[in-house]
Amino acid sequence: MSAAELRFCDTIREKDRRLRLFLANSDFPASDNARDWLAYLIGIKSALGNINNDLGFVATLLIKQYLEQRFGIVNFDAAGKAQGASGVDIEAVSADGLSIVGELKTTKPYQPGFGAAQRTQIIKDLTRLAAYKADYRFMFVVDEDAFAALCRPSLSGRAPGVEVVDLVTGKSFVCPGT
Fold it and tell me: How many CB atoms lie within 10 A of CB 68?
């Protein structure tokens, strides 16, 4: 791991330590008092910070492993791009000079096929990937339901040639061409 990746991992470990300390010293509110519930949930949120960025970073570590195994990439830094930064999430070049781009979705569908806002963002990312000039284009996901939804014709048809990869199960699917 790079120095930046190790620092990010240390940050996540510290959040885990703070959460465990909070939970060890706090009981779930026994009453139905909304103020007590809010204070409790704020304590958890405070300990965890932006957990979505942490999920994205750890998923990017899995992408790094995937790229190393499949393409022999050795110079990819999972902490090299800030989570949530604009542009494609993943940009790499294989040992033999092939360009690789990818988007990462840690989205859990609210309903089958995604909720309306989720679907809008997914379509935006698929459209961007489909238009991107690269030798390999990927949509990486961490949820089986998201993978299944992306493999359906209503979404896969929007991204010909894009490969959808479930980082947890290892399943992959190449969206059919037009």
Answer: 13
Name the burial class of residue 145, with classes exposed (0-12), middle (13-18) and buried (19+) by CB atoms within 10 angstroms of its CB: middle
Taking the C-alpha atoms of residue 51 and residue 12, their distance in angstroms, rounded to an integer, is 9
Residue pLDDT, tens place only, 119-158: 899 999 999 999 999 999 999 999 999 999 999 998 998 8
Report the Cα 104 to chain-centroid distance in Å.
Answer: 4
Residues 6+ apart with CB under 8 A from 5: 61, 77, 78, 79
Alpha-carbon distance 88 to 81, whole Å? 10
**144 closest CA partner among 174, 162, 170, 117:** 170
Task: Please choose, from the candidates 103, 95, 101, the residue with its C-alpha nearest in 3D space to the C-alpha of residue 122.
Answer: 103
Q: Could you give phi then psi for residue 99, rounded to 5 degrees?
A: -85, 140
DSSP notation for the chain: --HHHHHHHHHHHHHHHHHHHHHHH-PPPSS--HHHHHHHHHHHHHHH--HHHHHHHHHHHHHHHHHHHHH------TTSS-TT-SS-SEEEE-TTS-EEEEEEE----SSTT--HHHHHHHHHHHHHHHHS--SEEEEEES-HHHHHHHHSHHHHTTSTTPEEEETTT--EEEPPP-
